[in-house]
Design a protein that fits this description.
The protein is an all-alpha fold and 229 residues long. Helices cover 65% and strands 0% of the residues. Helix 6 crosses helix 8. It has two domains: 55 residues, Homeodomain-like (Arc Repressor Mutant, subunit A); 137 residues, Tetracycline Repressor, domain 2. It is flat.
């Protein structure tokens, strides 16, 4: 757990007076606190300054701009992803994917940041190392290793982003889905009506595990298709 996550409400900046010293670490801690408490609200420098009881311009002594702040937060979040390395490459890759999903669900913007290619924090290279080493253990090398690592990374981050933005389909909401189908032409409704009973049967974690398992199966097929695989 990072030092920022250990910060409790009791250690919040006091609202009377301004802090004698403001550091980059304090700013990142405050930003993470705001993201945890109000993940649906946009993080602005003004809101961050209020949280720190500081003047907005004072933040720029330590943070160049909002993009610099986002990179610093991403570094903090990613640097604390713990991945259990297993004996078999497939188990390590699965552990990596699950650990990353948990972290991304805690801080959704980090997944979006990486997916958009806005920044590649140094911590991302560190957190990706167990994945890279597991794939190397599986026998991939050079270009194959780069492509497979990129493929799995995008599947994981993309799956989490879809999990965050798509509406949850639970049994009690299927009535709304049926109503939405009324807007489709009859020929387009048939397949949807066929799968409708199954839509609410899996929760997000089960869907993620299904996606992960099928991805690992595909990686294994690719591995076996290589000469000497």
């Amino acid at each position: 757990m990072s030092s920022s996550e250990k910060t409790s409400s009791s250690s919040r900046p006091r609202k009377r007076g301004r802090p004698a010293h403001l550091s980059r670490e304090q700013i990142v801690e405050a930003a993470l606190r705001l993201l945890r408490e109000a993940p649906d609200k946009a993080l602005t420098m003004q809101a961050l300054a209020r949280e720190l009881n500081a003047a907005p311009m004072s933040l720029y002594t330590h943070i160049r701009n909002r993009e610099d702040l986002m990179k610093a937060i991403a570094e903090d979040v990613l640097s604390n992803v713990q991945v259990e390395v297993a004996d078999h490459w497939r188990d390590t890759v699965a552990n990596w994917a699950r650990a990353l999903r948990v972290r991304f669900l805690q801080y959704p913007f980090v997944a979006a940041l990486l997916q958009d290619g806005i920044a590649t924090p140094a911590a991302w290279l560190t957190v990706s190392n167990p994945l890279l080493q597991a794939l190397k253990q599986a026998g991939f090398s050079a270009e194959e290793l780069a492509d497979t690592q990129r493929w799995i990374s995008r599947v994981v981050t993309g799956s989490v982003l879809m999990e965050l933005v798509l509406p949850k389909v639970v049994p009690e909401e299927l009535i709304g889905v049926r109503r939405a189908l009324d807007a489709l032409p009859p020929e387009s409704q048939a397949t949807w009506l066929e799968i409708l009973p199954a839509l609410g049967q899996r929760n997000d974690e089960e869907v993620f595990e299904y996606t992960l398992a099928r991805t690992l199966d595909a990686v294994e097929t690719l591995r076996q298709s290589r000469p000497g695989g």
